Amino acid sequence: MRRLRNVKIVATLGPASSDYPTIRALFEAGADVFRLNMSHGTHDDIRARHVIIRQVEADLGRPICILADLQGPKLRVGTFANPTGEELIEGAPFRMDLSTAPGDVNRVNLPHPEIFAALEPGSSLLVNDGKIRLTVDTCGKDFANCTVTVGGTISNRKGVNVPDVVLPLAALSEKDRDDLEFVCELGVDWLALSFVQRPEDVIEARTLARGRAAILSKIEKPAAVKAYDAILQVSDGIMVARGDLGVELPVTSVPPIQKRLVRGARAAAKPVIVATQMLESMIESPVPTRAEVSDVATAIYEGADAIMLSAESAAGKYPIEAVTTMNNVALSVEKDPTYVQIIEASRVVRRETIADGIVSAAREIAEATNIKAIACFSQTGTTASLVARERPRVPILALTPLMSTARRMALTWGLHCAITEPQDRFKGAVLAAVKVARDDGFARTEDLIVVTAGVPFNVKGTTNILRVAPCDERLIHSVDPG
């Protein structure tokens, strides 16, 4: 099965998409990556979905990437004496404290001493996805006296965001640690880390994962935006989590932040997902709004590696239609000549290493001649990621003997991942690349492809060979009889 687009589609699984027929239909409609949301469902639910995905993978013969999204710490207020909550009026005082007494119109429990430890006068507290805004007047180790600056109804266990300060909270709660170990043992390919504020959060998750899954950092807090370069350096990938960013920052600042985060990840040759509310109306409607289609198209024009569906595919009425819509938008955008112009104008050319030079030359040769594809061999996925960073106009065949590598690479822009036999000589690599190019419909016998690899084989970071190869095995044998 060959995709006719480069951007990848991430589909979240949930109650609306938990059985084999639906998950297979989602993949056939265009989903390349399945997201398991650890905020919802039991370990048994997650395990069952994982088993089905791997069965679909085996039945269709294509590597499928699985992303487990960890919940992260959840900050919530306590409960109220009035079960329907209280109406907070703009300008009124309101107190949050550690007292467990039921809340009223004047105060409520906030069972997070870490928040009080970090607050300062002037800090903001956002409740219920920012619908209520409080400004801290005075605070101590167990209280914060506030003024209501944006009023509304506050009720039991509504979420709290603290946008102005770095909270002394680890990105991994005890639940997250249990979930991380569970999904790593299960065999997921990527871990999405929530509540990232600093690079140390990513390093902790990487230590716990012990190489069993790649680490993708969700940028959803102002502190993460400020520390983005350092977080990117220690991450394997990035998710632009626009939902919480739009709560904790002015919504007008999210589009330029999205562009900066995407370009930074592209320059670092690390996959980046644009997520949240992309086709939200399709939770209830079989067709999206024009604004949603434009939003999806914008992420594709920016060169994002992947675009993501959340509730649309997990709990919506039209999960398959949502994936189909994303697929069709991607096909339309990538056929647009303006898309090529934008992608090439935003390309970051790096030639700091031999591998950088090889992949850059591969793209230039492919685009200047009648080359049908660039084939790259990769043990870890690094070489394939460098080729993808070039955003070439021709398809990229990412070849590896390791299923784990093929699955992880399925998240990256433009990569058609295929499993090959282990190679110890370059001629064997060329023959394997030719076979994949022909069998999967990228080239015919009379065509040429570019092949990149590293000698010695099976050693990370040794990409040092580029060859233009015919897709006729007889010509390969005649040129290189050994």
Describe this structure in words.
The protein folds into 3 domains: 8-72 and 172-336, TIM Barrel (Alpha-Beta Barrel); 86-161, M1 Pyruvate Kinase, Domain 3 (Beta Barrel), CATH 2.40.33.10; 354-479, Pyruvate Kinase, Chain: A, domain 1. The longest helix has 18 residues, at 43-60. It is elongated. The strands form 4 sheets. The protein has an 8-stranded parallel β-barrel with strand order 1-2-3-12-13-14-15-16, surrounded by 10 helices. A 6-stranded mixed beta sheet has the order 6-5-9-8-7-11, with no helix packed on it. Strands 19-18-17-20-21 form a 5-stranded mixed beta sheet, sandwiched between helices. α1 packs parallel to α12 (319-335) and α10 (290-301) packs across α12. The chain is of the alpha/beta class. It starts with 7 loop residues before the first strand and ends with a helix. The chain has helices spanning 20-29, 43-60, 113-118, 174-186, 199-209, 222-226, 228-234, 242-248, 254-267, 290-301, 311-314, 319-335, 337-345, 354-368, 382-389, 403-409, 426-439, 473-479; strands at 8-13, 33-37, 65-69, 86-88, 93-97, 107-109, 124-127, 132-140, 143-150, 152-154, 160-161, 190-193, 214-219, 237-241, 272-275, 306-309, 371-377, 396-400, 415-419, 448-454, 463-470.
User: Termini distance?
Assistant: 33 Å
State the shape.
elongated
Task: Give a quick account of the main beta sheet: strands, pairing sense, barrel closure.
Answer: 8 strands, parallel, barrel
The proportion of residues in beta strands is 15-25%
